Description:
- By secondary structure, the chain is an all-beta fold.
- The protein has no helices and 18 strands.
- It has strands at 2-15, 18-41, 47-56, 59-69, 72-83, 86-97, 101-112, 122-124, 129-130, 139-150, 159-170, 188-200, 204-205, 209-210, 222-234, 237-239, 249-251, 254-265.
- Strands 1, 2, 3, 4, 5, 6, 7, 8, 9, 10, 11, 12, 15 and 18 form a 14-stranded antiparallel β-sheet that branches. It has a two-stranded antiparallel sheet with strand order 13-14. Strands 16-17 form a two-stranded antiparallel ribbon.
Amino acid sequence: MSLLGEGHLEQQSVQGGSTIELNGKGTTTGLNASILYTLFQTDEGKPRLNLAFVWRSQTVLPVDGVFLENGVRVADTASSIRLPEIYTWGVAFWPIRDAEREWKVEVDVDYARWESIQDFDVRLSNGVILANPQQWSNALSIGVGTEYRLLSLTSHPAWNVALRTGYLHSQQAIPDVNFNPAAPDAPSHTLSVGVGFLCKENGRFLGLLTCGAEAGFLGRKALGIDVAYQALLFESRTVVGNPNPTVNGTYQTIIHAGSMTMRVNF
């Protein structure tokens, strides 16, 4: 299958007392292909052990915009962002899967070919080229996660609850010479926890809506809400030899992220 996407780029810096800004946007297409194979099933025909593979093609996003100095347009710009080819392998196993509960354990491996990124050069309409060579390395990410789902609560039989947790380790892709404090790349460890609630059949969602009351092709079958939290713990990194001496130094980064989503099953 193909994928059509649009991107927006905006970068701002202060150089020699002037505020420099680059911004632009563009549209590109890419290819995704995947395969899912079920090795074992339960007596009810549900997967017990799945193997999966996903391939995402390399794609180039052309970015056209403007170059501003202290808010004043200097020139039009033309550049591109190369998105790497990514290979993903996954294994999912359900030690428990019956009418009352499901326990799934999953392991995923991503391999991103970041070495395909050679530069972030920006070409100005006045003929000037802002050279920005890159020397990124390919990187591996390994994640493991688990979900324990109660399919029917005794006190609320129309609801099921899922408890989730996971861990992801990602390798460093950006060398010291290309390091950017705006995206402080380093080997990272991501910890995540989450919980999900799914209301179906004749249950009531937040006491307001009947979850599975609508019939027909687009009739609502269930309503759900999911909450998650992630802590991204980057290993301490000391940068030396960057062309911009103000970038050199030691970086310690922690990122906290939370999300809440609501969904409708038809």
